[in-house]
Amino acid sequence: MKTYKVRALKNDNIKVTVPGSKSITNRALLLASLTDGQCVLKGALFSDDSRYFLKSLKDLGFEVEEDEETKTVRVLGCGGRIPNSTGTIYVGSAGTAARFLTAMLGLSSGEYVINASEQMKKRPMKPLFDVLKNMGAVIEFMEAEDALPVKIRGCFADGNAHVQKKITLDISKSTQFLSALLMTGCMCENGLDIEITSEKKTGSYIDITRKMVEDFGGDVSFDGTTYSVAKKSYTPMEYQIEPDVSAACYFYGIAAIYGVKAVVNNVHFDSTQGDIRFVKLLKNMGCTVKDTDEGILVIGPDKSKREKLHGIEYLDMNNFSDQALTLANVAVFADSPTTIANIAHIRGQECDRLNAIAVNLKAMGIDVEENEDSITIYPGQVKAADIETFQDHRVAMSFTLSGLSGVGIVIKDPLCCKKTFENYFDVIDTLS
User: Fold this and answer.
1) pLDDT of residue 214
2) What is the pLDDT of residue 162?
3) Which DSSP state fits 202?
4) Which residue range(s) make up the domain with 54?
5) What's the CA gap between 41 and 24, in Å, rounded?
6) What's the sign of the alpha-carbon dihedral 48, 50, 53, 58?
7) Relative to the CA of 16, which of 41, 60, 199, 400 has its CA 20 to 30 Å away?
8) Which parts of 45-92 are beta strand (E)?
9) Other beta carbons less than 10 A from residue 84's beta carbon
10) What is the side-by-side order of every strand in the sheet holding 315-316?
C-alpha cells in the first residue's frame, strides 16, 4: 500500500484496543536479558521496532521465544553476560534498540558490529558513544563519525574490571542515552554514577526506566544531579506490559476533534507513561474525560450544542513530545491558536518532526509559525492534500486525524506505521 486515502469519520462511539507500549516492551526485553533466569513478558508489542530488538537478542545468543497470538515473550537471561562473545546485530530504525543495545555491548567483554537503517544512521548517538569510549570501550565508526554502523569492543574485554565508576552525560538530545545506562549500569563491577550535565535532568521516560529497573530488582537513586546505579542482579519474573498510551492518544484526539466518544481498552490514569498527560490536556481543551472500568473515556465538545474545542496559548510538551504531532492536528479544529513549545529535540527523531508538522499543515491550507523549538498552529479549514510522512510512523498516524474530516487527505507511505502499530489503518477503516 503506497498511499492511504482517509475517508470521513462515521463512527461516533469508538472502542478500540491498541498494542503494548513500545517503550515498555523494549525496556522489558533488555532488563529480562540481564536477569539470571527466565522472564515471561505479557502484553508485548510486536512491531518493526520490537522485532529488531528480539532478533538482535537472538543474534547475541540469548534464548528467546515469542508467541504473537498471545502477545507473550520468554527470555532466558544470563546474569549480565552476553552468550556470544562476537556477533552482528541490526537495529533497523529503532532508537530504543540502537541506544539500549549499544550500551549493553559497550559494557560487555566481547566484540560486536551494530548495523542500522539509513534513517537511524542520521539520529544522535554521540553522547552515548563518548561515555562508552571514556569507560574504555573501543568504537570504530564504519561510515560517518559518531553515527551507526559501528564496530564496538566492550570496556570489559581482556578481563578489565576497573572501568571508571563516575561518568558525565548530556541528555538534551535524547533521554534514551540515560535510560540505556540506567538499565545496563548493573553490568559494572562497582555500579555506575551518572552526572547529568545538561539543563534537562529527568523526564517521563526516565521515570518509566527507573520504575522498571526497580520492578526487576535493581536500585537507582537520584540526588537532583547524579543517578547512582547499584551493582545488583536483576530478578527473573513475569511482567505485564501496559497498552501503548501513545497509540491510544490518536483515538482520543479523534474524539476531541469530531465531538464523538472514544474508549481505549485497558488504558487508565495510573499508567506510568508520560503521554497520559495528553489525555488530561484534552479536558482543558473542552473535552469530557473520565476513567471507566474498560478504559479512559474521552468525549469531544458537543457540536449540536455549539460547544467548542479550545486552543492553548502556550504548552511546554518537552516531556510528552511524541504527542506534539497529535496535538498539532487537534489544534487545527480549535477556536484559538495553539503554541507547542520546548520541542527542539524532535527535529532529531525519525524525521525533523517539527518541520514535518509545518510542511504538512501548510499543505492542508493551515497557517503555522515554525520556530527553532516551537510551533504555533492557527485554526482553519482543512483542504485536500497529500501528506509526506518522511518514513515516520507518528506523522502517518497523526495526520490521519485531520483526514477523517473527509476532505481528501492522502497519507503517503502509510505502512511506516509498522514501526509501532502495524494494523493502525485497519483500525481506522472500522471508523469510517
Assistant:
1) 97
2) 63
3) -
4) 22-227
5) 10
6) negative
7) 41
8) 63-67, 72-76, 86-90
9) 12
10) 315-316, 338-341, 374-377, 368-370
Which one from 244, 322, 392, 413 is the annotated catalytic residue? 322
How far apart CA 172 and CA 178 sit, in angstroms, is 10
Per the CB < 8 A criterion, the answer to whether 180 and 28 are in contact is: no
Cell numbers given for 410: 492522502
Q: Are 173 and 200 in contact (CB under 8 A)?
A: no
Mean pLDDT by 10 residues, the chain (432 residues): 96 97 97 98 97 98 97 97 98 97 97 97 97 95 98 87 84 96 95 96 96 97 97 95 97 98 97 96 98 98 94 96 97 98 96 98 98 98 98 98 98 96 97 94
Count how many domains the chain has.
2
Contact (CB, 8 A) for 53 and 101: yes
Shared-domain flag, residues 134 and 248: no
252: Cα within 13 Å, side-chain hemisphere: 34
Phi, psi of 234 (to 5 degrees): -85, 150
Per the DSSP assignment, residues forming a β-bridge with 411 are 4, 387
Cα 68 from chain centroid? 20
User: Could you tell me the three cell numbers for 71?
Assistant: 502477545
What distance in Å separates the CA atoms of residue 7 and residue 110, rounded to the nearest whole number?
52
Q: Residue 294 falls within a domain, yes or no?
A: yes
Q: Which pLDDT belongs to residue 161?
A: 57
In a shared domain, residues 72 and 139:
yes
In a domain, residue 14? The reply is yes
Q: What pTM does this model have?
A: 0.92
Helix residue ranges per DSSP H, 376-430: 393-403, 424-429
- The pLDDT value recorded for residue 158 is 76
**Taking a C-beta distance cutoff of 8 angstroms, is the pair 189, 231 a contact?**
yes
pLDDT at residue 189, rounded to an integer:
87
Count other Cβ atoms within 10 Å, centred on residue 238.
11
DSSP calls for 80-115: T--S-SEEEEE-TT-HHHHHHHHHHHHTSSSEEEEE
Per-residue model confidence (pLDDT) at position 160: 64
